[in-house]
Design brief:
Blueprint lengths: L1 H17 L1 E13 L3 E8 L2 E7 L4 E11 L4 E12 L2 E8 L2 E21 L4 E24 L16 E12 L3 E12 L4 E11 L1 E17 L5 E6 L10 E5 L4 H9 L5 E3 L2 E3 L2 E11 L3
Parallel strand pairs: 2-6, 14-15
Antiparallel strand pairs: 1-4, 1-17, 2-3, 4-5, 5-7, 6-7, 7-8, 8-9, 8-10, 9-12, 10-11, 11-17, 12-13, 12-14, 12-16
Length: 288
């Protein structure tokens, strides 16, 4: 028994002698790694698909890690993604101007294993989850109303247009993905190091619901007068303030969803957050 305790103490002392705890902070930029069709862009020349990933954009990370020896370690991280704008629908033709974009504002966490190939080169891989945030869609629609009938009879004068702006937030189900990176570390001292990484994140989010947070539609006449025709508390016919994404629809619900993207129920879909990115950061080691 005493020999077993002594052996365990010797192993623990050997591991602890080279163990190292560290913290780090980094920032960088990611580009799409899995371009999925998001929408269309229409001009007088034709219609073109738009592709992207919500994982594209600027990001920051805070990490804490522990090396058991000179080779193997574990790391936990918390990050924030300030996603780039993705085109959902864009129309630029006479009398019809539409610009709807969406972007991610997401918080994520990861847990990884770290392996040192050399004193300077290392790799890490692990699991990634999205723990908070939202995907925000912002829209602007301008349609020519010249000659259209007015509510009180008659027709709108030339130069009249309908202007609509809205903000819609998408919520998703808890996802699980993969994260992997290879990096190079340069020691400034025995405690402080600079590092650069190439990082891959593979993750998709299944939509759960969408909520209109802002909505305003006005008719604007050439003399500058504005007449409100719809607000967040008085949405136009066919618009649901909250849209639910479900896995099954009845035939009637499916037909309604196909005809109207703002119907109360829609089939759920996965949207990509996958990306390739580059990180630059600094780490501090608490000792060996």
């Amino acid at each position: 028994m005493k020999k077993s305790i002594l052996m365990f103490a010797m192993i623990l002392a050997t591991v602890s002698a080279s163990a190292q705890f560290y913290v780090s902070a980094s920032g960088g930029y990611s580009i799409s790694s899995a371009g999925v069709r998001f929408g269309t862009e229409t001009t007088t020349a034709g219609v073109e698909n738009t592709y992207g990933s919500y994982g594209e954009g600027m990001h920051t990370q805070l990490r804490g890690g522990y090396f058991f020896n000179d080779t193997f370690g574990v790391e936990a991280a918390f990050g924030y993604l300030h996603g780039a704008d993705q085109t959902i629908r864009k129309v630029t033709i006479p009398g019809n101007d539409v610009d709807v974009i969406a972007r991610a504002r997401a918080y994520g966490a990861s847990a990884s294993l770290v392996y040192k190939f050399t004193n300077n080169i290392y790799g890490r891989f692990g699991a990634l989850i999205k723990v908070g945030g939202e995907t925000e869609a912002k829209g602007y629609i301008k349609q020519d109303m010249s000659g259209q009938p007015t509510p009180n009879g008659g027709n709108f004068p030339d130069g009249t247009y309908n202007e609509t702006t809205f903000t819609q937030d998408y919520k998703g189900r808890l996802p699980l993905g993969f994260i992997g990176a290879i990096g190079y570390k340069h020691e400034l001292s025995n405690k402080v190091s600079l590092f650069a990484e190439l990082e891959y994140m593979g993750i998709s989010v299944t939509r759960d619901k969408a909520i209109f947070k802002e909505f305003n539609s006005e008719i604007v006449t050439p003399d500058g007068n504005r007449m409100t025709v719809a607000t967040i508390n008085n949405l136009p016919d066919g618009y649901s303030k909250e849209i639910l994404y479900v896995d099954e629809l009845t035939l009637t619900e499916a037909a309604e969803a196909q005809a109207n993207p703002y119907a109360r129920k829609q089939l759920s879909e996965k949207v990509p957050y996958s990306s390739f990115g580059i990180n630059f950061g600094i780490s501090y080691s608490f000792g060996k």
